[in-house]
Amino acid sequence: MTTTERPPIPDPIDLDRAEEARLRTAAGLSLTASQRGGEYAGFEDIGLPDRPPQTEREAEVYSLAEGEMLLNMGPQHPSTHGVMRLVVKLRGEVIVDIDPVLGYLHRGIEKLCENATYTTVMTYVDPMDYLAVMHNEHAPAMAFEKLYGIEAPKRAEYIRALVVELDRVASHGLMMGFLSLDMGGLTPILYAFINRDEVVDLLSAISGQRMLFNFFRIGGVNWDVNDEFLSRLGTWRSHVLKNIEMNEHLITDNEIFRGRTIGMGVLSGRDAIALGVSGPNLRASGVAFDVRKAHPYSIYRELEFDVITQESGDVYARYLQRIAEIKQSIHLIDQIIDRMPHGPVQAQVPGIVRPRPGRAYAAVESPRGLYSVYAISDGGPNPYRFRMRDPSFISLQALPKLMPGHLVADTMAVMASFDPVMGGVDK
Amino acid sequence: MEHVRGPRPAAHPLGRGRSLTTPVAVGPLVRLLTERLGTTARGLWTDADTVEIQVDGADNVEVLRALRDDDELDFFFLADAAAVDYGIDAHFEVVYHLYSSKHPAWLRVRAHVERGNPRIPTITGLWEGAMFHEREMYDMMGIVFEGNRDLRRIYMSPDYRSFPQRRDFVLPDDAADSAAAGVNPLERPETWDLDRLRQAPGVTFPPSEFRDDAPAEGPHDGVQDGETATDKSRPR
User: Fold this and answer.
1) Considering the entire predicted model, what is its pTM?
2) How far is B178 from chain A (nearest CA, A)?
C-alpha cells in the first residue's frame, strides 16, 4: 500500500494574492511588488512604497538608520482632521522626519469647474474647505465679476462681508475645540460645537442650507437678510462674547494646555513667509499680512480694524491669534450691521455668463489664510482655467520643518494649531 | 412669508463694462519694473489691482529673485504658483502671483514653457513653500521642475501615468469614445456597445471575459491605459 503525500495546505493569504495577481494580469494592470515578489515584497502591506525611491527627498525619508522606525499616522486617524496620512520617522518617541501623503480626498474640483458654467462653479467650490464655505464662494465670485466687468451692489457687498465674518467666527471657534481635543481635553469641543451650531443656524436662516451654503452669486448674493436671520443674529450677538470667554476660561489659562502648547512648534516669521504659510498662522509668527488690509476687497476699505499679530509663533500664539480674530470679527459684524445700506442685492446678470477673454486674480482672507482664485476666460460659457490656492494645502509644508525633535504626541497638537481642512488640501 | 423670495430685485444701475473698484496707482510699479527688469519682462499689462509681466521659462528664477530681493520692489510673498495649458498646439505657462507690502497691486509673472519639452527651473530655492505648488503642477500638468528635490506626484497615486489637468486629457464621461485614464467603460450602462468600445483607442479591458466570440486583443494604436490621448480634446 502506497501512501500519497498530501500537498501542503496553502496559506489563504497567498491564495488571495495569487487570485488577485491573476485578475490583475487578465485586466492588463500592473502587479504589486508582493505579487511579483522580490526586493520590495510586503512593503505596501505596511504602507511603504513598494518601488525604488523616486526623488532625493523620498529616499531620505524612507531610509532608516539604526534605531529608527517608520510610523503611519492615518489615513483614517481621528486627529488628522480628515483623510490624510503622515509618515513619521521615529527614533524612540522623538520625531526625526515627517512626510505628509495627500490625495485621499482629491476630487479634481479645478477640472470639474473648468467643465462647468460660471454660475455652477459656485456650487463646486463649496465642499473644498468645508469649514469656510462662504470664503470658498467669495473668491470665485470676485474673480468672475472682474472677468465679466460687473460689480455687486453695495448692500450685497455688506451682506457678503457679514456672512463671511460669521463664517470666520464659526471656523475659528471650532479650531479652539479641536486643538484641545487633539491634546486630550474633551470638554471644549462640545462647547465649540454648541457655539458653531448657533452661527450655522444663522447662516442657514439666510442661505437655506446648513453646511454648503451656495449663497454667493456672480454680481451679488442669493438672498437678502430676513427677519429670522436678524432676530437670531441679535440673540447670538447678545451672548457670544460671554460664550467665548467661557471657552477661554476652560482653555487659555489651563495649566496643562499652556504646558503643552507654549514653546511648541515654533515657526519664525521668516520661515513662515518662505513656506507660504498665511493667515492667522502667519500673523501668529509676527508678520502683519492680512489680505483684508493688504488688498482691501469687498467693503473692508470702509471698516475699521487693525491687523492683529502675536510674537512667539508657537502653538499657543496660534491659538491666541484665533481668539483675538474671533473678537475682531464680532467687532466687524457690529460695524457692518450699523452701516448696511438699503438697495438691491443682485446685479443684473444673464443665466449663462460669457465673459470676454481675459484673466482675473482674486484673493480673500479665509480663516486659514490666503485663499485665491485665478480664472482665465476664453469667451466661452465655462472658465478655460480655474485655479484655486488653498491655504491649508500650503501650510501643511510647515510640518516637516517644525516637527523634528518633538514627541509623537505633539504632532497632532502642532497640526491642529495650523487648522488644516483636508477637503481644501486635496481639492 | 417674508422668507419667500419675491420678484427679482431691480437691476443694479451700474451696468456691465463699468470699470471696477477704484483704479489703483500702479504707475510707479510699472516704471520700476521696466527699469529693473529691462527687456527680460515682456507684455506688461495692468488690471484694477494686478500688474502682469511675461518672461521666458528659463529666466524665471532670475526674475523672481530680482523681484524678491530688490528693496524697492520687495515682492517677498509667493501668493500662488499655477500652471496653465493653452492647448495642444500652443504652450504651457507657469503663473506666479506675488505680494509686496510696498505696492498696491498683485504682481503676476507668466513664464512660458514649451509643450514639447515641458521643463522649467525650480523656484524652491527662493521660496521653500513652492514645493507643494510644483509637485501639484507636475502631478496635474506634467511640467518638470529642474532642480526640485522632491518632484513626486502629490494627489494621484505614484503609479498613475496621466496628467489630468491638461486640455487633451479625456474625462471619464467620454470613456467610450477615447482613451480614458483607468476607467472601466463597462461601469457606465450606455457604453455597452462593445463594437464601438473595441474601436476606441486605449480601452484595455479583455473583451473575451464579457463575450465569448470576441477576439482577445491588446490596446489599439499603441495608446496604453492611463495615458493621455493626443488626438482630440473634449468639445466645450
Assistant:
1) 0.79
2) 17
